Amino acid sequence: MQNPQATKNIWQVILASSAGTLIEWYDFYIFGSLSAIIAEKFFPPSNPQLAYIATLATFAVGFIVRPFGAIVFGRLGDMVGRKYTFLLTLLIMGGSTFAIGLIPSYHTIGMLAPVLVLLLRLLQGLALGGEYGGAATYVAEHSPDNRRGYYTSFIQTTATLGLFVSLGVILITRTVMTPENFNNYGWRIPFLLSVFLVIMSYYIRIRLHESPLFTQMKQEGKTSANPIKESFGNKENLKLVLIALFGAAMGQGVIWYTGQFYALSFLQKTMNIEFVQSNIIIAIALLLGTPFFIYFGSLSDRIGRKKIMLTGMLLAALAYYPIYKAMDNIGDIKQKQEQTADLRIESNSSQNEAGKLVSKTTRVHSYTDGSILRDTDGKKELTVSHTRMAWLVILIFIQVLFVTMVYAPIAAFLVELFPTRIRYTSMSLPYHIGNGVFGGLLPTISTILVTNTGNHLAGLIYPIAVAVICFVIGIIYLKDKKGVQL
């Protein structure tokens, strides 16, 4: 049984680790949450669809470099220590996010704008590649063997909570100013605010002590001189890395991004749901789903990690098409009956970033189901009724449940798979390839599939295929080591 002092210490560790990790996810996901606006600000305006795809590709770059961050900072964490490594990643992430908020628009500095955004996204990706492995390892190495899934599940909530906080900050900023002001300069505020959150998190983390397992290993002179070589040059360990990637992390990555990011993109770009309403829908679904990270993390301590993760993958693969078909139907105005007598035409003028007066004409269509469509010079925004909104929340909440099943146990699963001396490096790489490459490319690949086929649901081919492949490999090769002594 864990003594009271140890219990107090583990909660201090979780608070400090989670606070920093939440801020890093917040920083990382502001970019994705504001991708539609960023496409307008930092990329050539001649082709809006291409600009949006380019923005998603820039967003994906931050994911693609995460494995390199895992190698660089994983090596540092296994040689120098867990604590100082994720202090460094926190500062890099916070500085990069703040800088994005300062970059002048494409209208001001031309092609230098997307180049600077790309460079800062690279730094964000490298930092996040080193952050997660350190935080998860640090918490796991402070946890009792029989509660590891439960305690590490709090770290797992930070990715979703980071997205939730980013949406909350964006919504508050958007509602306290006019749409024109938010579009002109207000979108920068969530980026700039991150500097205050990073300072607070750094203050909390700097007071932590190093992991007891790492401290003991260092005192005994057993730290790895070359953790990269030991992790990937050793045949047996490399086999574990590949099994972790293709049997767990790959499927977890696509399910995480489908259930949260692709869902938001689908609402805004495919269904044309109004900006504030679409973010509220996602935020409510995330808030309802977050406690299930703790539930499934704790459950994995009793029945094992493998069963829960693979069940989540299979359910997601089977349910995605009917879920998104139902969402598409809710937003399909061809299936709605318009109240033509209520058609309104509004005209207004506002200044753009260049200071020029721009006139806009908006046609407001009302439908019998309570939906309202605002068509401003071809740019459509659909506001659905409260009943339809509730259905969308339920459909996305189900997807978030799949996320909690595959994501809650994976930190404990990866930590238990590798020895202490190379744990930071070994667990970080498959996690960040699975999330950064397979998961991070999902919005871009899915958008390209939809654009090329003209089918709203074609983007689901990718996550369903990856989840099925990972499920099959996981059934055959994954071994559960729940509760093993580290």
Automatic annotation (TrEMBL):
It is found in: Cell membrane. It comes from the Bacteria. Residues 13-482 form the Major facilitator superfamily (MFS) profile domain. Its main location: membrane. The keyword Metal-binding does not apply. Gene3D superfamilies: MFS general substrate transporter like domains. It is a multi-pass membrane protein. One of its GO terms (molecular function) is transmembrane transporter activity. This is Putative MFS family arabinose efflux permease. It comes from Chitinophaga niastensis. The lineage of its organism: Bacteria, Pseudomonadati, Bacteroidota, Chitinophagia, Chitinophagales.
